Amino acid sequence: MNCVDREPVVAGSFYDSNSNNLKSQLNELFSDFKETKENISALIVPHAGYVYSGKIAARAYAMLNPDTDYENIFIIGSSHHVSLYGASIYNLGHYKTPLGLVPVNLNLANKIIQSSKYFEYNRGAHADEHTLEVQLPFLQYQLKSIKQIVPIIVGTHNPDILKEIAKILQPYFNSSNLFVISTDLSHYPTDKNARIVDARTVDAICSNQTQKLMQVLEENKELNILNLYTSLCGWSSVLTLMYLTQGNDNISYEKVLYGNSGEVMSHDTSRVVGYQSIVVTRNEQKSMEEISEKHKKQLLKEARSAIVDYIDHDDDLDSHETPQELLNFNSAFVSVYVSGDLRGCIGQFDADIGLVDLVRRNAVSAAFDDNRFLPVEVEELDDLNIEISVLTPKKKITNIDEIVLGKHGVFIQKGWNRGTFLPQVAEKTNWNIEDFMGHLARDKAHIGWDGWKDADIFIFEAIIFSE
């Protein structure tokens, strides 16, 4: 199918249509903001014309580390034009702005659409909609590269369906991806009333409690404030994000910058729109204690069950619920031993499935698909031992002096070649750092003994447990 790229429809009105002028406009908006923040999972940002809300949005975008190479950026906004059963994902081509093409992850877009009745492609949802488009130049300006986006327009106001949409997106809410939620706050009250209503709404969002947000939105209506058309125009998109984060103690919502349209242009304070930027971060510092003994036992049980099921010709590896406490983990390796001898080790970084499904998949692959070894036989099950390594997010480094052998695993990548050693490799081999890196480069990444010297290097830690 030929790509049909989505042309910008509000360039020249919401923001400048000339690329050089737009860069100058963005330079001005970002000029006062230099501070970045680590472990950002999501941004909530306004979507008005840049002259009105550009500064508010830029403050949040400026907190992104420009070097971060997100696997996907999910941009989610609520439709101003159409009603849908669920949500629409643009899957015809890519998005364009005056700053260039922004690639859409078409494979993922189609995968999500095909896997759920709550997603579709609806032309009207994207054709004249500004809510996603206005976010793209900010991302193009702040990030050195954008690998791909997933543009989603929410067209339902049904909280039950929004919850189902969040369930579909849950596996992608991880450290490899960024979520951008596009919304303004109150529409058309006076400046004084806007500040009152907006403060209530923002506090509810930052509580990370969906019921509190819904309650506050209803209470705002009951205030009978003159000309208050809505107190959160993109509430359905915000609620979707909150369904992803609610109950997760590692997630924090932080207010960044507030303003309203009465502060610019004509300074008309009699009828304003409110804007707030919010940054959502996660605590990525995982330790052994943060996976409970209960959940370790559950993961080991799931791994063994998957291997037995496979032998019994039951290939049901997916759709097993991952406990809330484990949702932040999306990288894991499974090692299989028979009578103490390694018979397979398979893993994956930055998976787009839950940890339980990931462990089950890797267990089967380690037992039967590691071509270095013979597949495990049914009569060997009694002598089988399983070891699971749940990995913390990868951190890019520039100097191997940062590697602590025995503590850090290392992942290297050079072009399409990549390889990894888990932390326990150093303990079993007693290599020094140069030998460790040499073997990793030559034996795993296949880029030669010294290939690591001009490769991208990442470190991670592992939470290791076994039967």
TrEMBL record:
- Name by which UniProt lists this protein: MEMO1 family protein OM075_13010
User: So what family is this one in?
Assistant: Belongs to the MEMO1 family.
- Provide an example Pfam family for this protein: Memo
Species of origin: Plebeiibacterium sediminum
The record, for InterPro entries, names:
AMMECR1, AMMECR1_dom_sf, AMMECR1_domain, AMMECR1_N, AmmeMemoSam_A, MEMO1_fam
Domain named AMMECR1: residues: 294-467
